């Protein structure tokens, strides 16, 4: 028989990092994709060059498919955390899933507003599909039958460190690089700004979770996290590179190297935080601050 956690003198760990993230999500995670004005986006879409359109549409397709995938695949992690009795973490994760659903709504709303209602699947490359439609669901669905610390760490490495921390962050950077200077598609940029802030909490939670697991089981750093990242990193380069093989990607004067460097910088910072978790006390990991992990 299970014992209650919060109807005791323990209560809720209100100073813990996951609980603080939960409070923050209730405050700043409530923006609404349905109330953003996309009128100028639709006008801009009519005057962009074919090359610029293809370039933005490729990015939008990747985000539409990507937000859908992370919405569909998060549930087994929430279940594993709940089964482990990590109540504050589960409370935070309820906001996480809500936000991913909202991100799926957001990109679909943009696509509909600019009149792109057709088939977008052909714009996704094989490497992209390998990550989002094979590697991600496999790592997440494993948690349905295996809730070991190793399986949870592997899932968080694929989902939070790689898909969110490397691929999505690099994608936002591309939107800004392409649209901000030219003041194009302000509704899209407004939503992406909100989304980026939500993602900073998601990645912050993933970094906390991995630090906790590494602190409790130090072998996880080399045997699970490093091993998985070594396998995934070349796929990030391939996805960025494949996006640049099309001639129309010159439309915005972007250079692939800039994006590869950006992706690698993101990754390096987080891997350094994780490597330090091996020598830390668990109490200190719960005291992680928002700025330690880039939550704003
Ligand atoms: Mn998202
Ligand atoms: Fe996310």
Question: Which descriptors would you attach to this protein?
Answer:
11 helices; binds manganese (II) ion; mainly alpha; binds fe (ii) ion; about 300 residues; Ribonucleotide Reductase, subunit A
Short description:
With 296 residues, this protein is mainly α.
- The assigned CATH architecture is Orthogonal Bundle
Distance between the termini: 40 Å
- Give the H and E element order: HHHHHHHHHHH
| Name of the top-level CATH class | Mainly Alpha
CATH T-level topology: Ribonucleotide Reductase, subunit A
Total beta strands: 0
Structure overview:
- The chain has about 300 residues and is mostly helical.
- The chain has a single domain (about 35-275), classed as Ribonucleotide Reductase, subunit A.
- Helix content is about 70%, strand content about 0%.
- It contains 11 helices and no strands.
- It has helices spanning about 15-30, 40-45, 50-75, 75-85, 85-115, 125-140, 150-180, 185-215, 220-245, 255-275, 280-285.
- Helix 5 packs antiparallel against helix 8, helix 7 (about 150-180) runs antiparallel to helix 8 and helix 9 runs antiparallel to helix 10.
- The longest helix has about 30 residues, at about 150-180.
- The mean pLDDT is about 95.
- It binds manganese (II) ion and fe (ii) ion (FE2).
- The site of manganese (II) ion has 5 residues, from helix 3 and helix 5.
């Amino acid at each position: 028989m299970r014992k209650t956690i919060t109807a005791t003198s323990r209560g809720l760990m209100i100073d813990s990092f996951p609980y603080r993230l939960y409070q923050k999500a209730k405050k700043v995670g409530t923006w609404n994709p349905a109330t953003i004005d996309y009128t100028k986006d639709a006008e801009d879409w009519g005057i962009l060059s074919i090359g610029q359109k293809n370039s933005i549409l490729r990015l939008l397709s990747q985000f539409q498919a990507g937000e859908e995938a992370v919405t569909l695949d998060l549930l087994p992690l929430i279940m594993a955390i709940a089964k482990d009795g990590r109540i504050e973490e589960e409370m935070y994760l309820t906001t996480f899933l809500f936000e991913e659903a909202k991100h799926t709504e957001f990109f679909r709303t943009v696509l509909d507003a600019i009149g792109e209602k057709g088939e977008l699947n052909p714009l996704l490359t094989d490497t992209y599909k390998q990550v989002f439609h094979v590697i991600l669901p496999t790592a997440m669905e494993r948690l349905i039958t295996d809730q070991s610390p190793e399986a949870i760490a592997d899932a968080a490495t694929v989902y939070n460190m790689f898909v969110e921390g490397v691929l999505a962050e690099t994608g936002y950077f591309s939107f800004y690089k392409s649209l901000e200077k030219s003041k194009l598609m302000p509704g899209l940029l407004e939503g992406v700004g909100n989304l980026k802030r939500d993602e900073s909490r998601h990645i912050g939670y993933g970094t906390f979770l991995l630090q906790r697991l590494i602190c409790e089981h130090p072998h996880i750093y080399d045997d699970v996290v490093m091993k998985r990242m070594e396998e995934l990193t070349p796929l990030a380069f391939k996805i960025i590179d494949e996006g640049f093989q099309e001639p129309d990607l010159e439309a915005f004067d972007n250079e692939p190297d800039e994006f590869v460097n950006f992706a690698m910088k993101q990754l390096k910072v987080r891997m350094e935080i994780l490597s330090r978790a091996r020598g830390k006390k668990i109490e200190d990991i719960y005291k992680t601050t928002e700025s330690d992990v880039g939550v704003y």
